[in-house]
Amino acid sequence: MSQPVYKRILLKLSGEALMGDDSYGINRQTVERIVSEIKEVADLGVEIAIVIGGGNIFRGVAPAAAGMDRATADYMGMLATVMNAMALQDAMRQVGLVSRVQSAITIQQVAEPYIRPKAIQYLEEGKVVVFGAGTGNPFFTTDTAAALRGMEMNANIVLKATKVDGVYTDDPKKNPDAVRYQTITFDEAIAKNLKVMDATALALCRDQNMNICVFSIFKPGALKRVIFGENEGTLVHC
Ligand SMILES: Nc1ncnc2c1ncn2[C@@H]1O[C@H](COP(=O)(O)OP(=O)(O)OP(=O)(O)O)[C@@H](O)[C@H]1O
Ligand SMILES: O=c1ccn([C@@H]2O[C@H](COP(=O)(O)O)[C@@H](O)[C@H]2O)c(=O)[nH]1
Question: Where are the transmembrane segments (predicted)?
């Protein structure tokens, strides 16, 4: 029987993916489906740390934030990710997955603060750790938080679970002629300004030799296939 190729992963979950077919917010059925896929992987013994996005609730650079002070809008965006983290934790609890939420912004009544050794201890105990509030700093994104936490957790890989099934020559949602890469180097992705992930996150992963796999969270079973090292999504590497 095949074995997972990764012992510990950092899963970046798209905030926008949590909307399902809704126009904003958290779609319960979608969260439950995503959690069932996470559980399958956790049941294989893979240690899972998650960074959750917030685009389904608030995006600091979106029209909703127009006219606002950028840093204020970004803090609102980070708080949105904490709400997503709580929704995810609740859905995991309902299927028997033990998890802990750690927030990069102190908000002690609802989540533990981010403490690196404690997070690592939880992972070793088989608990899923969900990191909320991104990096805790404005002007960053949860992609960069995923790169950062992936390294801090000594994860084997960063998995970006998003709305498209890999990195394309152009945004596939806007350009139907865009072609998917099976693999691409960090340097090429940065040089070509391929916007599937921000350049800060790509540069951080490149400098620390941390591979990224970009795949679709909407494709059933894709997460498990990535975990088994099967041909799924796009591998971004040095
Ligand atoms: N070259 C490209 N290849 C693939 N996707 C691209 C590319 N350029 C732009 N995109 C867009 O990038 C999006 C994924 O990145 P984005 O940061 O918007 O979402 P996310 O990180 O998954 O969600 P959230 O920010 O809500 O957590 C895709 O949905 C796709 O439309
Ligand atoms: O480290 C961070 C992470 C996020 N933000 C703000 O939150 C929103 C939502 O995050 P996404 O990565 O877009 O899902 C983002 O647009 C920023 O406004 C942040 O400031 N710092």
Answer: none
